[in-house]
Amino acid sequence: MFTRTLVSLLLLAASAYAQSGMTTRYWDCCRPSCAWSDKAPVNAPVRTCDANQNVLSDPDAGTGCDGGPSFACADNSPWAVDENMAYGFAATHISGGTESSWCCACFKLTFTSTSIAGKTMIVQSTNTGGDLGADQFDLQIPGGGLGIFTSGCPAQYGSWDGGAVYGGVSSIEECYNLPEAVQDGCRFRFDWFENADNPTMMYEEVSCPAELTALSGCTRSDSGSYPWDSGNSTLPDEGDGSTLPASNPGAGDTTTSGGNPTTPDTVPEEVIPPNTGTPSNDTISGGTCLRV
Fold first, then answer.
1. What's the pTM value of the predicted model, to 2 decimals?
2. Is the dihedral of CA 208, 210, 212, 216 positive or negative?
3. Position 93 pLDDT exceeds 80
4. pLDDT tens-digit profile of 277-291?
5. Contact 34/44 with Cβ under 8 angstroms?
C-alpha cells in the first residue's frame, strides 16, 4: 500500500514538470547519433545493424549514409501497445539539454492536437536533431520521409520507394512498396497514429520500458531517477539493456506517416561525434537529424 501510494505521488510530481512540444517524423536509415561511443552516461551506445539486419559489434562503424556498413535497425519502428499507448524511438532536441542528457532517455508524449489528442507514446531518444526547434521530437517512422540523406535506405535495402522525400508515403497502400521488414512500422502511422500530421504534445521524462531498451541496447545510468509510468506494459529496465521485451515487435511492427514538414525557428549547434571528422546533417520530416 505504501509503495503504491509513493509511486502515485511520484507520477503526480513528474506531471507537474511536463513541457509542451511538437512532433515531426522521419526515416532515413542512417545510423543514429546516440550510436557513437561516449555520447552519454550509458551502458552501451544504441545498436546499429548492417544491410541484413545483423546487429554490429563495432559502435563506431561508419554510417551507411556515407558509404559505411552501419544503419538504423528495422526494429526501431514504432508499435501500438494498446489503443491508447504506443512505443517508439525519436530524434530530439530538449530545451536546456545536450546529447549527454537526452541520449537513450525516455519520454512520455501526451498528444494535444489532431485526432490522436489524449493518446500517449513513450519514446526513447536515440538521435539528435541538428536543426530541430526547441522541444521538438522527430518520430522514427518508416516511410516518414528521407530528407536530404536519400542514399541510406537504398544502400541498406537495395531500393526504396518511400514516397515524398519530405513527408514520405501518403497512404497505407504505399506502405507495401517498402521492404517487408519495415512495412508494419509504416502502417502504424495510418492505424494507431491515425495519419496525424505533426501533432503537438506535452512531454515528461520517465524511466524506459524494458521493451525499448531491449531493442536499442542502451540504458542510462540515471534511468532510475525518473518514475515508472503506469501506462508501461513492462517494468522499466534497470539492467544492461539486454532484457528481452515481453512482446518483441520484431523487425517492423510499426506504421509510418507522410505529413508535411515544418521548419523550426531555431537551429541548435551541430554536435560532432567522436572519431568521425565532420558530420553531415540528415534532414527529416520537420527538421534535420544529425546522421553521421
1. 0.75
2. positive
3. yes
4. 333 333 333 333 343
5. no
**What would the grid cell of residue 154 be?**
537504398
190: left (phi over 0), alpha (psi -120 to 50) or beta: alpha
Nearest CA-CA partner of 125 in 55, 226, 52: 226
**pLDDT for the residue 131:** 66
Determine the pLDDT at residue 291: 36
Q: Please enumerate in sequence order all residues whose Cβ is within 8 A of that of 176, keeping only pairs 6 or more positions apart, or say none.
A: 183
First to last CA, the chain: 49
Of the residues 60, 66, 138, 197, only one is catalytic, namely 138
Do 252 and 189 contact (CB within 8 A), yes or no? no
Instruction: Give counts: helices (H), strands (E), the chain.
Output: 5, 9
> Which among 28, 60, 237, 282 is annotated as catalytic?
28
Is residue 138 annotated as part of the catalytic site, yes or no?
yes
What pLDDT band is residue 133 in, cutting at 50, 70 and 90? confident
Closest CA to 200 of 254, 256, 142, 119: 119
Contact predicate 10/227, CB 8 Å = yes
Mean pLDDT of 23-33: 94
Provide the grid cell at 196: 496525424
pLDDT at 248 over 80: no
Beta bridge partners of 127: 91
Q: Is 174 helix (H, G, I), strand (E, B) or coil?
A: helix
Residues 199, 112: contact at Cβ < 8 Å? yes
Look up residue 251 and give its DSSP letter: T
Check if the beta carbon of residue 132 is closer than 8 Å to that of residue 91: yes
